[in-house]
């Protein structure tokens, strides 16, 4: 009977993963259409985020996206941990939920586990983007530059408020290093 519990736990975890992988959030439905994946590639600076354990105490955060041979996208997130006084980097992969013309992706940094990454607002010149995750716990504002105009910040924050995001929890990322 000792084998039964691990098998049940494994099966339960598998079922949970399958069900969570199949479910999409309302935020996925807000993803921009006419998304140009080629224009999206390259380096982005994090302007703001909701803090969570993998980004806690980070400044000078960047995200870099590049095309893979299998059609997926390489994701490299990098930031300086000002408490530990060291650079941290996470490498992952992203795949489009439907096709490359919709800004709804799934991103994985941990094996087969993917999380939603929805580009819900993007400037026409791909100079900045607002990203919603699968819940109101995950939100990012990214820019091609280390800063962003107050008018664009306000536009993104207002849209987040309209969609139920607690913007008072935003961490405005310090970008003070030269790259």
UniProtKB/TrEMBL annotation:
Organism superkingdom: Bacteria
CDD domains associated with the record: lipocalin_Blc-like
Lipocalin/cytosolic fatty-acid binding domain segment(s): 36-175
Stretches that traverse the bilayer: none
Family, per entry: Belongs to the calycin superfamily. Lipocalin family.
The protein's name: Apolipoprotein D and lipocalin family protein
